[in-house]
Write a structure and sequence with these properties.
Elements: E1 2-10, H1 13-43, H2 50-59, H3 75-97, E2 118-123, E3 129-130, E4 136-138, E5 142-147, E6 158-163, E7 169-176, H4 179-185, E8 192-197, E9 201-205, E10 210-212, H5 216-232, H6 239-248, H7 251-271, E11 274-278, H8 282-285, H9 291-297, H10 299-313, E12 316-320, E13 346-348, E14 355-357, H11 358-369
Parallel strand pairs: 8-11, 11-12
Antiparallel strand pairs: 1-5, 1-7, 2-6, 3-4, 4-5, 6-7, 8-9, 9-10, 13-14
Helix pairs in contact: 1-3, 2-3, 5-6, 7-10
């Protein structure tokens, strides 16, 4: 399977200018492709193909006065931007026909230079390389300093340069993993576990272990509020406002949450052959008074990490139905004791008089509902693993009701 390895980049001032130019050129080509498709739709003519768009929007456009500056960046960056537009339209039409799984997608929208995230992609034919000093050489940009946190396990097939909301630069390499090496890294085990996700505790395992919720956003709330007040006082369009905006960006909070999710998901995958989680309606929960706490927990991101790691290492991830009464059923005798308020954290079964911790009992029921309780040898109890979801380039989702985010 393919994975991405991201590393921090530290471009010089001229390199930042060159990257900004590349971001802008890729954005213009993408927008030109969307406009060409839109003009064809309004005129009732056939949509122009990829080859026609490449010839008109890149090759011929470079020869005009208005678009001559497209020649200042790598042609591969522009071609990949056209591919992104084609992919966005393909996903949109598949969504209309109902052949695409997941939420309904709207048509591709125009990109803005004020977007929080800017990205360009270099494939192998762009002749990018890693030099002997560990720098990343990018055509028409130069050798950019990379902060290597680990070694690449294989030769990358492409690299995407990303500028995030906090103004930081990253290089994201696409790597094809070795199944044999992955199997050796995570040998089979006989353990299985049920996981109940919550807010008071981030996760309670069927083994009885409780993982506290770090509440990254809650802890940083006072600092963020101060930064937002400072931003509101800055003059629009000024450099001081740009500096204040970077302080408001929740990059540190998001990074800390992502690191916590990675560590916990890796721990669960390495220790258990089968993992059961509840299919939570995160989008619906995010509309309640608990919205801030739900977003702070980041359950969807955590489950996505479990999914792709289970697929990579040959583990089994099972999602139980969200309407399964895991908190109302006694895990000892199976008796239904009816719904309970969230304030009830411990209850006694009316049938067998067993005293239950609400979250631990739910984790046991989630494991049993997934069929993992009967697995004595650690063999997969459900075929395959659920692949992680990825964002669609240039498309925006349409409201689809109470679906899990």
């Amino acid at each position: 399977m393919q994975l991405r390895y991201s590393f921090r980049l530290y471009p010089t001032t001229p390199q930042r200018t060159a990257l900004a130019r590349a971001f802008g050129c890729a954005r213009v080509v993408f927008n030109d492709a969307v406009r060409a498709r839109e003009y064809a739709r309004k005129a009732g003519t056939a949509f122009p193909g990829a080859g026609e768009l490449s010839k008109k929007l890149i090759t011929q456009a470079k020869r005009t006065v208005e678009r001559s500056w497209l020649g200042e960046v790598s042609a591969v960056v522009l071609q990949q931007s056209l591919r992104d537009a084609e992919t966005a339209y393909r996903n949109f039409f598949a969504s209309l026909k109902g052949t695409r799984k997941g939420p309904k997608l709207g048509p591709p929208r125009l990109k803005s230079r004020k977007d929080n995230r800017q990205a360009i992609r270099f494939t192998a034919n762009a002749r990018w390389s890693l030099d002997h000093s560990g720098r990343l050489y990018l055509p028409k940009i130069g050798a950019v300093k990379v902060k290597w946190s680990r070694t690449l396990p294989a030769t990358p097939s492409s690299v995407t340069v990303i500028k995030d909301v906090a103004g930081r630069y990253f290089a994201s390499f696409v790597i094809d993993t070795d199944p044999a090496a992955d199997a050796a890294r995570m040998p089979d085990t006989e353990s299985t576990v049920g996981v109940d996700l919550g807010l008071s505790h981030f996760a309670v395992l069927s083994t009885g272990e409780k993982i506290d919720s770090p509440r990254f956003l809650r802890r940083a709330e006072k600092k963020v509020k101060k930064a937002q007040k400072e931003l509101s006082r800055k003059q629009k369009g000024s450099k001081n406002r740009d500096k204040a905006r970077l302080k408001v960006a929740h990059a540190q909070v998001a990074d800390a949450r992502r690191e916590f999710h990675h560590q916990l998901s890796t721990k669960l995958i390495s220790e258990n052959q089968g993992i059961a989680v509840e299919d939570l309606a995160v989008k619906a929960l995010a509309r309640t008074r608990l919205a801030k706490s739900v977003h702070d927990a980041g359950w969807a991101q955590f489950i996505s990490m479990l999914a792709y790691k289970a697929q990579r290492y040959g583990r089994t991830l099972v999602r139980t139905g969200r309407f399964t009464p895991t908190s109302q059923t006694c895990s000892t005798c199976g008796a239904m004791d009816g719904p309970k308020a969230l304030s009830v954290r411990e209850w006694t079964c009316s049938a067998c008089r067993t005293v239950h911790d609400r979250d631990h009992n739910a984790a046991l029921n989630i494991k049993a509902a997934a069929g993992l309780a009967a697995s004595a040898c650690g063999a997969p109890v459900r075929p395959g693993a659920i692949p992680a979801q990825r964002e669609e380039t240039g498309s925006h989702g349409l409201p689809t009701g109470n679906r899990a985010a």
